[in-house]
Write a structure and sequence with these properties.
heterotrimer, A alpha/beta (506), B mainly alpha (307), C mainly alpha (319), B: 307 residues, mainly alpha, 2 strands, globular, C: mainly alpha, ABC transporter involved in vitamin B12 uptake, BtuC, 71% helix
């Protein structure tokens, strides 16, 4: 059981507020030497704020920070870096057009006596580092833009380690990694621990916490709930501590309606798009249909192609008829709607009001001969806001001022306002707090019960298992199998996702 | 509070003007200044469309010059030719704007590059057309529009500008197109995913700018009566300044048309004030430049406070 | 070499030199008067101020910015020099000292404001008007007492096709190219232009980099002004107006775009040459000199269009 060992870093009675929101309320927390600690909690629990305070990016309103028992005053990024605290964020913080070497040395390049960049020396220094401590780094002369995500991740971590690291902070490092890649990452983490470095990582994937962490800390509503040794707890307990609910309460119960439809709402025949190849499947109205498997196996390309964003081949049948979809407009006209994973970049216009955002796809309905009928627009927007319980002062509020959960709701409204027959969602609850998550799940169930075919693409396997009636699992662009009924289990899903053979019942 | 900043600034300016020259507070003087500001305001309206949609139009100056030169040589003192001349000029402006918009939206040429290049090309065309020595003069309708007054008090040019403004305001705030324009400027990707034809929206905005640049040029021709090859040169920078001084975002999606007018008026009244104070041209430039920098920085600090 | 990513941008500019060579060959072939030492000398002298300013402009465009005040700074330089000698202050060199100080100050102001968030076009537009005002105040009409020694120096011919102005511009180019490709400063300019946040997190002082880049651009404007003094031997508050947008054209034609962190000086060099030679050729062929406006505009548009086509195809699906 882990729990002993000298304390490396300790924060006491930390309070931090942003305006009216209290992100951290009187939080105390410590990490020991050579420890791998997981930090879990729902969105809004304060994990990211805590991490920013530890890495010196934010100053707490109140509270103290201790390092090796010594109190630190006027703590900032510089001091944190000098102590060997390195934080690695979710976004890949690299300069795309530069080489691996240049990115590794960014900000601390070696300079020759003439004042020029000493590439020779840097290359030598790095090569010895690579050999002895970090062989997973891609070749030093490769341009970062040309590397795959995993290699880029490695470069980011290597950067953090190169100048000596005592505490490595990783924010959701495995979000974009496959199982194999994650194992590589974890072996690096274990090596670090053996070398005396502590690692703190934030994760939403509870199964991984048990694979690698010594202890796990649960935060909830800005407070420290508990720190437990991973050997002495399990997922159910963590979920309970994180959300105050039982794991069984996270998802709405199965639909009571039985499908009597014989015509699929949408059918794909020989459909290929981007990474996905030759897909054949049928989705019926009233179903919540999930696309699962590791990230980037073609699921995203499939739905983006269906929305007319990228070109595709093969046939798409809507209600039994072949429909050509070659643009976003034609997709919308065919009754297809799409909620992007990256709402801020792709689905919301942050500088405009809620009302304008929601009504954007149906401007034709709300205007006459080109002239806007504002009463109609206002009515629609207000109605949607009410149905989805969007918390805002008025429909005229700018979307940029809303919380993450409410932004997602606006994004959802936008996709439903044109009354689609098929609704496709990509990562529907990314960055969304517990309460809103549950509301969204319930809403999706309602929408499906109304006769709409709902497609969900998500990297959150428990989510898929929780809300979908059927799940299609993809591997390297091919549809490996469709899970339904009793086969809708995590072990079978993961097996298919990793291309293992599974006996499927029909 | 922040919403009223452009108006507060203009108000302060006019107040200062009133202190230094009480006689200029007379309504006829104010109207005269408004009349002189009319061409800039019209061009600023066109520039507003383009900046709100997330672009920029650097060709407006050259288009104004071309309109001036064309109008003068086509009318050439014969007032009866005014009608056809206006039609031809508007068509030219529409064509230029459409080419700009088309190249930017469908040819993926960056807006800065395209309108800069087009500006150079049109400037060259203007020179070539006049072979260095422009001829002709304006008579008739344009002259009346620019110089006469309704009931002897309100300049027709002011009424005209008000009409153009009303039309543009309606387009931006009361039509489907206006909604699409702001959506495109705010986040083109999101607009595309909402089924908006972003390329067409942008092209139309540039076309409007082309037409309004010509309109401004025609009105200007009425003021100056003769052709002058470089007459439009300053309008590029000042029209952009007017829009930005009105608080619009250079990235697009944020901005109010009426504030662009306020921005244009701020520049004009500032110049007027400096003239009354007998400040020479050098001094005028120094003050204008400083004011532009100061107000732009002011908006930046205000935005910072909101975050 | 292959560890230094800026090498890629040097390589990318090679096609431009082929185009330049082609233009050169066609020009020589089409008229007798082009390929003479006298004419080439002339071309290079005319090219020099543009090249100098375009080099500074490259740094600024790499940072996703623009500096339209350089033309006004060049003009200001000529007017300050036209003040003649400063009796109690370094004599004939007094004005030079003053204009360098002014140039640095203007660049500092530009860089600081732009770093704080003012859009580069508006800021440098404002400063260009401001500087134009100062220049006009010093010299309402062209004229003045430029020191003979200084003016003579900046137009000196050195035999064959070489001249002091050209030598200065090439030297300036070399110094800036060295800075850009071989020093930390240059590397940080690329980094800051590509991604300011990542650069900040890496500990780079992006404010310092931004300010230094704009100072470099303004100083380039000053140097160009000195070269102009060698051409006009007087002060003229409006002489440099075209330099601003012409330098941006040269930079864009050379392959540095507003994308940030992409491009380099070797491309700018080719761009400046291409523009200057085309001007010269058109003049030579007695093609009505105003056609060069048209040509310049078309070159700009076409070159960007080409470069976008040839470069990696981005996901144009959502546009």
């Amino acid at each position: 059981m882990f729990g002993g060992g000298p304390t490396l870093i300790q924060v006491k009675n930390i309070k931090k507020s942003f305006g009216a929101t209290q992100a951290l309320k009187n939080l105390s927390f410590e990490i020991s030497d050579s420890e791998v600690r997981a930090l879990v909690g729902e969105n809004g629990a304060g994990k990211s704020t805590l991490v920013k305070i530890i890495s010196g990016v934010l100053k707490p309103d109140q509270g103290e920070i201790f390092w090796n028992g010594e109190r630190l005053n006027n703590y900032n990024i510089r001091i944190a870096m000098n102590l060997g605290i390195r934080a690695v964020h979710q976004e890949i913080d690299l300069i795309d057009n530069m080489t691996v070497l240049e990115n590794l040395m960014l900000g601390r390049e070696k300079v020759s006596s003439l004042g020029t960049l000493d590439y020779k020396q840097m290359k030598e220094d790095l090569e010895s580092f690579v050999k002895s401590e970090f062989p997973e780094i891609p070749p030093l002369d490769k341009i970062v833009k040309d590397l795959d995500i995993m290699s880029q991740q490695m470069v980011v971590i290597a950067r953090a380690l190169f100048s000596g690291c005592n505490l490595l902070i990783l924010d959701e490092p495995t979000a974009v990694l496959s199982d194999n890649e994650r194992d590589v990452l974890f072996s690096v983490v274990r090596r670090l621990k053996a070398g005396g470095t502590s690692v703190l990582f934030i994760s939403h994937r509870l199964e991984e916490v048990f694979l690698i962490a010594d202890r796990v800390t649960v935060l909830k509503d800005g407070e420290h709930v508990s720190t437990l040794s991973t050997a002495m707890t399990n997922s159910e307990e963590l979920v309970r501590l994180m959300s105050g609910r039982e794991i069984s309460e996270l998802y709405p119960s199965e639909t009571k309606k039985t499908s009597k439809q014989t015509t699929p709402a949408i059918e794909l025949r020989g459909y290929s798009c981007g990474k996905c190849t030759d897909v054949n499947l049928k989705i019926y109205p009233g179903e919540i249909f999930g696309f699962g498997g590791l990230m980037g196996q073609g699921q995203e390309d499939l739905i983006r192609g269906l929305f007319g964003i990228i070109p595709h081949s093969g046939n798409v049948l809507i209600n039994g008829e072949i429909v050509p979809i070659d643009s976003v407009k034609s997709a919308i006209e065919a009754g297809i709607s799409f909620v992007s994973a990256n709402r801020e970049r792709e689905s919301l216009v942050l500088c405009r009001s809620i009302r304008e955002n929601i009504c954007m796809p149906i401007l034709h309905e709300l205007s006459f001969l080109g002239i806007m009928r504002f009463s109609l627009e206002k009515a629609r927007a207000t109605n949607m806001m009410r149905l989805f319980k969007i918390k805002a002062n008025s429909p005229k509020t700018l979307v940029s001022k809303l919380s993450g959960g409410n932004k997602q709701k606006v994004s959802l409204c936008k996709s439903l306002v044109m009354k689609p027959r098929i609704l496709m969602l990509h990562e529907p609850t990314r960055g969304v707090d517990v309460q809103t998550r549950f509301e969204i799940y319930r809403k999706l169930r309602e929408i499906a019960d109304d006769g709409i075919a709902v497609i969900v693409v998500s990297s959150d396997t428990p989510e898929l298992l929780g809300i979908c009636d059927k799940i299609a699992v993809f591997y390297e662009g091919a549809l490996k199998g469709i899970l339904k009924g009793k086969q809708k289990r995590e072990d079978i899903l993961m097996a298919l996702a990793n291309n293992q053979k599974v006996v499927m019942e029909d | 509070m922040k919403e009223w900043t452009p108006y507060i600034l203009l108000g302060l300016l006019i107040a200062v003007l009133g202190i230094f020259s009480p006689s200029s507070m007379h309504i006829s003087h104010l109207l005269t200044v408004l009349a002189q500001a009319a061409p800039l305001i019209i061009v600023a309206i066109g520039q507003s469309f383009v900046i709100f949609v997330g672009g920029i139009d650097l060709s407006v100056g050259s288009v104004i010059s071309l309109a001036n030169v064309l109008a003068c040589s086509l009318i050439s003192g014969d007032a009866s030719r005014t009608g056809t001349t206006i039609l031809i000029c508007l068509a030219v402006g529409l064509a230029i704007g459409t080419i700009n918009g088309f190249a930017i939206s469908y040819g993926f040429i960056p807006d800065f590059v395209m309108t800069l290049g087009m500006g150079a090309v049109i400037q060259g065309v203007t020179y070539i057309f006049t072979k260095g020595s422009p001829v002709g003069n304006v008579e008739g309708f344009l002259l009346t529009l620019a110089n006469d007054r309704f009931l002897g008090i309100i300049p027709w040019s002011v009424i005209f500008v008000a009409l153009v403004f009303a039309l543009a305001f309606f387009m931006l705030n009361g039509t489907r197109y206006g909604r699409k324009l702001y959506a495109t400027g705010g986040n083109a990707t999101a607009a595309v995913l909402s089924g908006i034809n972003v390329r067409l929206v942008k092209t139309i905005a540039y076309a409007i700018s082309g037409v309004l640049s010509v309109t401004g040029g025609l009105l200007l021709s009425g003021f100056v009566r003769v052709a002058s090859v470089g007459i439009g040169a300053d309008y590029v920078l000042y029209s952009i300044a007017a829009v930005i001084l009105g608080g619009a975002s250079f990235a697009g999606g944020i901005g109010k048309l009426q504030n662009s007018i306020v921005g244009a008026l701020t520049l004009v009244f500032l110049t007027n004030l400096l003239t009354i104070l007998r400040v020479g041209q050098p001094g005028k430039f120094i003050v204008q430049g400083s004011v532009i920098i100061a107000i732009a920085y002011l908006y930046v600090t205000m935005k910072g406070e909101n975050q | 070499m292959k560890f230094n990513s800026s090498y890629i941008f040097v390589k990318r500019s090679i096609p431009l030199y082929f185009i330049l060579l082609g233009i050169f060959v066609v020009a020589s072939a089409s008229t007798d008067h082009f390929f003479t030492s006298e004419n080439i000398l002339n071309v290079l002298v005319q090219l020099s101020p543009l090249l100098v300013v375009a080099c500074g402009q490259t740094f600024v465009v790499l940072l996703q910015g623009i500096d339209i005040s350089v033309g006004a700074v060049a003009s200001l330089t000529t007017t300050v020099l036209a003040l003649g000698s400063f009796e109690h202050f370094f004599g004939a060199w007094g004005p030079m000292f003053l204009i360098v100080v002014l140039g640095v100050a203007i660049g500092f102001l530009n860089g600081l404001m732009i770093y704080k968030g003012v859009t580069p076009i508006i800021m440098t537009l404002g400063s260009s008007v401001l500087v134009k005002g100062i220049a006009l105040g010093l010299r309402p009409v062209p004229g003045g007492n430029v020191s003979f020694t200084i003016a003579e120096f900046f137009c000196k011919e050195l035999g064959w096709i070489f001249s002091v102005p050209f030598l200065i511009s090439i030297t300036w180019f070399s110094i800036l190219a060295f800075l850009l490709h071989f020093t930390r400063f240059g590397k940080y300019v690329y980094a800051t232009g590509a991604d300011r946040d990542v650069s900040n997190k890496a500990g780079i002082n992006t404010m310092k980099i931004t300010i230094l880049a704009y100072i470099l651009s303004s100083v380039s404007g000053v140097l160009a002004g000195l070269l102009l003094v060698g051409q006009i031997w007087s002060g003229d508050a409006l002489i440099g107006e075209k330099l601003s947008l012409d330098s941006v054209t040269a930079v864009l034609v050379g392959g540095t775009t507003f994308e940030g962190g992409v491009g380099g000086l070797f491309g700018t060099l080719a761009g400046a040459f291409i523009l200057s030679i085309m001007s010269n050729v058109l003049n030579m062929m007695n093609i009505f000199s105003y056609y060069q406006y048209v040509i310049k505009g078309l070159i700009l548009i076409f070159s960007i269009f080409l470069s976008l086509r040839l470069s990696s195809r981005k996901e144009k699906s959502i546009r």
